[in-house]
Amino acid sequence: MPSHYCRKDSTKLYLEQFFQTKQELYREYKNYCDENGFSNLILSNPVFDQTFSELNLALYQPKKDRCDICCGFETKNISEIEYQKHLEKKERARQEKDKDKELAQQEKVYTFCMDLQAVKICPVVNASKIYYKTKLAVHNFTIYDMNTHVCRNYWFNETEADLSAPTFTNFILDFIKDKCTKNIPIILYSDGCCYQNRNCILSNALLNYSIKKKVLIEQKYLEKGHTQMECDAVHSLIERKLKNRNIELPSDYVKLTKEARTKPFPLEVVDVNHDFFLDYADQKNWIYNSIRPGRKVNDPTVTDLRHLKYNFETKLIEYKIDFNEEFQPLPVRSLKYPEIEYNVLHQRRLKIKEIKWKHLQEIKCVLSKDCHSFYDNLLH
Fold first, then answer.
1. What span, in angstroms and rounded, lies between the C-alpha atoms of 167 and 193?
2. How far is CA 206 from its chain centroid?
3. Which of 1, 180, 279, 379 has the least C-beta neighbours within 10 A?
């Protein structure tokens, strides 16, 4: 499995969440060797551990429940001053979100939150044969309306889209176009993950949409380590629905998500295909080449952004690095407003590695025959 929370910074591959420690993994390895007649070839624990590291593998760890800074303060690795600043930022972001949620309930603004669910795999069946094979990665990007409780889940697997900024930009723009029927401001809340929601591709697309529709759009980012949102509760509902369920095809995730909530109404689900996507990364449609709020070394960077505003009247992006500050225009000179024309992003389905395709072929023997054609037709 690819890393869920640091794909951009890590090339590690993670084993599925079966083992809590390397010692458990080593015991499974020894059992496998014994059962398959390789007892005389078993590596020692230190050699096994070294080989595991050389293969650039790691054990999959679910998203941490606790913040690094909060834990660091408890272990006296973070100073009192730094910790108090962190708490102030956390509370200030929460206050901002509560205020915008109340405005949404008064129908003065649209307030949405969004996040990517932890990576899933396909297939998932109770057969030991499949554990030792690589499988398809499947993802769900969720957007939640804090007023109406409408929640849309965009499910896609790695043959339909990758985990890049244009992918998430398409989801966000699709939801806004569909749900924002009134000409009132749109406010988006998320964590600060750059490839999902804090990047030049999304910012240009939102600015273009703001200018075209003459509507104010704002993006606000919660404090790192404290990014709990309403869409997390939806992910929890889906996880409970998936528990102990066999998954033979990616579309099984779509079906179970539709059944995961009944009140106030079922979750919306989109089974995304490769032809869903437009190429928002095409720079001929950009107004800004960068959204960095600084110019020089030691100036603020993109990760310091706390609040972005897309102003259709001035055709500019304004920013804050603290919710208590005043807006400033980005120091990057904006380009001439272009004639917008978005092309198709993917001409065909994406290819998977040949070894993964072979593994999926070997797994077919434990799947229903109706599913075999799906795996046969994967590009590789």
1. 14
2. 18
3. 379
